[in-house]
Amino acid sequence: MSIENRLPEAYLQRMRRELGGEADAYEASFCEKPFYGIRANTAKFRVEDMKRTFPGQLTPVPWAPEGCYYPAELRPARHPYYYAGLYYLQEPSAMSPGSVLPIVPGDRVLDLCGAPGGKATQLGMRLMGSGVLFANDISASRAQAMLKNIELAGIPNVYVTAETPEHLAENFPEYFDKILVDAPCSGEGMFRREPSMVKDWEAKGPAYYADIQQQILRTAVRMLRPGGMLLYSTCTFSTEEDEENVRKLLAQDPALSLVPIAPRPGFSDGKIPGTVKLWPHKIHGEGHFLSLFQKAGGSDSKEAAASKSAKCSASKPGRLPEEAAAFLARLPEKYRKLTFLQVKENIYLLPEDTALRPGLHYLRTGLFFGALKKEHFTPSQALALALSAEDFSGKVLYPLEDERVIRYLKGETIDTSGAEEDGPDGWNLICVDRYPLGWAKRSKHNLKNKYCPGWRWQ
Ligand SMILES: C[S@@+](CC[C@H](N)C(=O)[O-])C[C@H]1O[C@@H](n2cnc3c(N)ncnc32)[C@H](O)[C@@H]1O
């Protein structure tokens, strides 16, 4: 199909005007096939191990140290390591915002427009279990999809909410150290990969999104602590949505300054120095825009922000029911010292920052530890993926090539009679190599499958 038939006339005219001598290269990029990206979950799995898993098949994404390209025929989602949450499949350019925002363990991080969670899982992994990730999306159904990705990635220190930015801001004034606003946009950078975005562009256009983005950004800034940093990204090229929004935000809030993003291979300058554009005709990836801000006044420390919000923290919990307490006693100390929250039969282990606020729509409050049914405790799928094999004494380690790995992922009961891994009855963590997949309950010579039914290998 010709480029004129694929893209709206008004869009083509604008791009030809703006890109000048590069317009032909931009249009020619629509003949290329999309690029596929895989990002190591470095909280569990090193990039070198990922490369060894797919020998000779992965090549580095130049701007994202944890990212690689893979050939379409590889199908890494049909591999048991995918079910162990060891990597995430992500469009290569979409790896840039989560890699540029300078997250350090211990940070309070907000991903305000987070679903389906590509960047949220990246931010969460960079926290390495310390600090807290708030993963939010205005849409509850999209936030639900994000929750699954976060659980699969094994991120324990997380709150997942489905909230308006305004409602969050009322509850978390100047609370976060780092905020990502990966805003809804007109999607021009995705036209090659997702032609359906073209229809949305024709129906709404950049101006519609620019207003929403400005509103989201202003609200996000209210939640940024003095000294904190905010990354604003879109997957569009329109100046109205990108640089104009940067200018408006800087003009309306004197406390904000633009932090120049350090050059990386593949990064081109935006129209404002220090901002970044990724262009599909210059890189192997789709279009993106990035800008980084800092709020003045870093003297207001994290501790001060903590005391400001301490009055809203969770109330002191009661005692854990006996079976759940016995199970918790088998976990490492870092889990045992967490505050727990029981909501009906479900028990959650709250991040050190017990940032619960009444009236917010939480889909997840911390690590889902497990459920109690008639006093009996069942550990959760999320807990299995947050643990490492060393964290739990009762476990079965199957090598990758063992056919029982796929049988376990399909939900089958595994007969262990005569097998050397027979052990005491009770809960066992089933692992592929040394990476947890889920739970099974051993009874005599059977491992009764407790793998989450919705997650099964199809
Ligand atoms: C570009 S997508 C985010 C992609 C996501 N960051 C990722 O990497 O997977 C934008 C998201 O913003 C959400 N959204 C739209 N309007 C919003 C608003 N006013 N506040 C918060 N999120 C919003 C949409 O539901 C959508 O999931």
From TrEMBL:
Keywords of this entry? Cytoplasm, Methyltransferase, RNA-binding, S-adenosyl-L-methionine, Transferase
Q: In which residues is S-adenosyl-L-methionine bound?
A: D137, D182
The protein, known as: RsmB/NOP family class I SAM-dependent RNA methyltransferase
Does the UniProt entry include the keyword Nucleus?
A: no
Q: Pfam families given for it? A: Methyltr_RsmB-F, Methyltr_RsmF_N, Methyltranf_PUA, RsmF_methylt_CI
Query: Could you tell me which InterPro entries the record lists for this protein?
Result: Methyltr_RsmF_N (IPR031341), MeTrfase_RsmB-F_NOP2_cat (IPR049560), MeTrfase_RsmB-F_NOP2_dom (IPR001678), Nol1_Nop2_Fmu_2 (IPR027391), RCMT (IPR023267), RsmB/NOL1/NOP2-like_CS (IPR018314), RsmF_methylt_CI (IPR031340), SAM-dependent_MTases_sf (IPR029063)
> Which species is this UniProt entry from?
Hominifimenecus microfluidus
**Is-annotated flag, keyword NADP?**
no
Record's CDD domains?
AdoMet_MTases, RsmF_methylt_CTD1
Q: Where is the SAM-dependent MTase RsmB/NOP-type domain?
A: 1-296
The record's family statement is: Belongs to the class I-like SAM-binding methyltransferase superfamily. RsmB/NOP family.
Catalytic positions are C235 (nucleophile)
Superkingdom, natural source: Bacteria
Which GO terms are recorded in the biological process aspect for this UniProt protein? RNA methylation
Source taxonomy: Bacteria, Bacillati, Bacillota, Clostridia, Lachnospirales
Molecular function (Gene Ontology), one example:
RNA binding
